[in-house]
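Title: Prediction job returns without error message
Component: structure pipeline
Severity: low
Priority: P3
Assignee: unassigned

Description:
Job completed but the reporter wants confirmation the result is attached to the right record. Sequence as submitted:
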Amino acid sequence: MPPLTSPLHADLKRSLLATLPLGIGMMAAIDEVVFHQLLAWHHFFDWGTPAFSLLSDGLLHSAELILFVLGFFMFTKLYRRGVLNRTAGWAGFVLGMGGFQLFDGIVDHKLLRLHQIRYVENVLLYDVIWNGAALLLLLVGYLLFRRARRTERG
């Protein structure tokens, strides 16, 4: 196992970028498992036949697996070279999660209307919680990356 380098020798930008696909894939998986399968609140595309809705979930699952594999190889390459910055890596992971959730909440739910979080009379509470959680994840990711940059400088 290669030695971990100090944050002064780590690659912050690549550490962040390597873990973004992991975070996106993780949040897509959480969305799919919890909201699509366990709670059965929606599918990725709800405006077709049940068979097409199930197919759309399968395509989402395929995309999340591709992102996991991509992120894994990017992460592993940095780790083996000894230039992974763990704090920047966590920042990328959390930013990826928040970015996926906010994109899903605004683009998929509101702009494209592929599906809603839940089909109820007043979906506003669900939207506020969904997008609020996304903003919280983005804030945590930003603060983690700021910490990584401060540590690198000082």
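Comment from assignee: result matches the submitted record. The chain has one domain: 19-153.
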